[in-house]
Give the backbone structure.
Amino acid sequence: MARPAPRPGTPRPRRTLLLFLALVVALYGLLVGVDLNHDDGAVWKPRLGLDLQGGTRITLQAEASSGDVTPEKLREARDIIDQRVNATGVSEAEVTTQGGNQVIIEIPGERRGNIVDQVGKTAQLRFRLVWAQAQGATGQPLDDAARAKAEKAVSAVDWTKLSLDQMIAAETDSPATLPKQYSDGVAALQQLAAGFQCSPDGNQVEDVPSRPLVTCDPTNGQVFVLSPSVIEGSQVKKAEQVYDSQRSQWVVSIAMRDSGSKVFDAVTTALTPQQKSFAIVLDGEVLSAPTSQAVIRNGQSQIQGSFTSTSSKALANQLTYGALPLTFKVNGVSVEGPSLAGSQLQAGLLAGGVGLVLVMGYLLLYYRGLGLVAIGSLLMAAAVSYAMVLLLGQSLGFTLTLPGIAGLIVAIGITADSFIVLFERIRDEVRDGKSLRLAVESGWDRARRTILAADGVSLLAAVILFIFAIGVVRGFAFALGLTTIIDVIVVFLFTKPLMSLLASTTFFGKGHKLSGFDAAHLGIGERAVDQSGPARTRTGGRA
């Protein structure tokens, strides 16, 4: 005879448990897939923060091109650098101010030269027209006197009176088309370009937005004579790396603000017919000099070049976060050891382990067999949390600092509270006269509201803290929020279905004295827990 179909809404604990276990297996399967692309096995180790494993410490000295270095400008610069270095908010790169004119960046992990270089180039971003270019210097290097004389000739000219149309004509036709009063300045620019020595290690040039600029692209040695700035970096609204599947190459997509969009429209309209270029200049060095291949009327454009995934991401970050209210020079780069000594870290971990053992011991003594359910649920929550920490470390650069570990430990208490709420609700339902199988379902209906409310408050606190905090405090908030969500998943998909199954077993369902549901422990007299009966009379007259 066929079994009747289950009614809608009937719990299916076995199916739920299998779904949860499949999710856990899928998480670790992803880690195995990631590990296949790494030979060192680092995938299975969490990324540790600067306080636990050391890393790179960069000191930037702020200088104002006009006026003083004010606290407001320094805070604004700190925020932009923090977005650039720590764009995800969870990689634990800490950016702070010091002494009224310094920004300190601490990046966990081994020293990475590309990060140091990018941080050192977080000053001024500008878009300029290309008046002339050559592959390296075409003449003898200028001596100091000749260079100073040529630079003085350039600065003596009032370039601010040039219109955008005149600057465009100087590129599409020739710089010789500029009015006569600029001829001495143009000649001086050509002299500087002929003797310019491009260094792949960086070039010190004075980048004044109102004057033309002689500089180079340090990656290929190409020397440029550039117009005064036509668009400032602050006009870049957004830049991101994009993979062009049609051309099978990485490109950088940019969006301009309204004022920058209008200038971009005029520039690309004039440059596109002749396939002329414009230069993107950061800290006086050419980042890229793309050819204008289409008229851009909405401020949306793509920069094409020989980009890799890494270089396109770096350029997008420089375009988005490059314009700072101050200029900076790298005042020092050092490799720091962990600020927490090994003995201190071990002592902290030992204290956490002892605390966890005491909690497990209490659960076993008070809840007996139910304590094993709580411990099993804690272990499953720990397994999911560990997998998520590893996956987020690979995908978002999430690193564990001591505050982050504190967030994980605090969440253990939140998870244990959820189990206790469920167990106590079930025991109350048994005391009120229900059999254990009915008590599990009715107790769950009451307990889940309490669990969701408590976890909702914890999650809201974590979100608010993550939004308004900075530095490693955001790591604490992120870890707390992550493990709070995992708590809900474990209770709903593991603990409650497991309790439904255990209520049907002889050990728990018949109220064995070590199960935590025996009649004497619950105070229900001689009634077996698998049978319904009258509610226990409680102190105060409540039945």
Summary: The chain is about 50% helix and 15% strand. The longest helix spans residues 436-468. The mean pLDDT is 80. The first strand starts at residue 55 and ends at 63.
